[in-house]
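Continued from yesterday's entry.
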Amino acid sequence: MLAQILPLAGVVIGALASYLATAMAERARFRRSMAIRWDERRMDVYVEYTSHVKKMLKLGEKILRDPADPAGRQADLEALEEERSARFEALALLADPATTDAAHTVNRQVARLLRATREPDRTEPPAAGGPSLGDDVVAALNTFHAAARRGLGVSSGSPL
């Protein structure tokens, strides 16, 4: 009888070990798949957000340089602001804290640009040779890009 139980126990232990190994491999594969999916979604949100900020920057600078048709351009800028704000909400839900903080800094610089276009008479001109509002937005975007790259695990200069 013992001669029959030992091989049977070996088969049961082997089947259990095989099942556990397969389950662990499947779980790891699922986690990798989900991580890739969320990284792709985060990157899409980051690109959409920065695209809207850049469009706002270009239009805002155009309004400040040449105030012709301010109502039409301002309406376009306000529409872009609504889109940027919606993109930021998605970003805040998906991004890591450092990237979210960097995006908040971008938002503050964009708000300064919007104020300047809404009330050009109340805006202080930049100091001679100093950074413009646009330069401040670009600097904040560069910090955002660096934080987003770190959050996505992208190291600069390394081949993929």
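--- second protein ---
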Amino acid sequence: MNKIKQLSFVMMMGVAVVSMQGCSPEVGTKAWCEELKEKPKGDWTANEAKDFAKHCIF
């Protein structure tokens, strides 16, 4: 029974993570550019910086 509870917990956490990912705007959209402008530049990933330059500046 304990293993069933553990498996259920892991599955619920997976669903929660997937659900939260759906809340982010698509890369390159105006909403994404605005969201990234609000985020401290020190917290940007290399991919975010590259995508920001590609989609929001040029």
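Helices lie at 2-21, 30-38, 46-57. DSSP finds three helices and no strands in the chain. Will compare against the first tomorrow.
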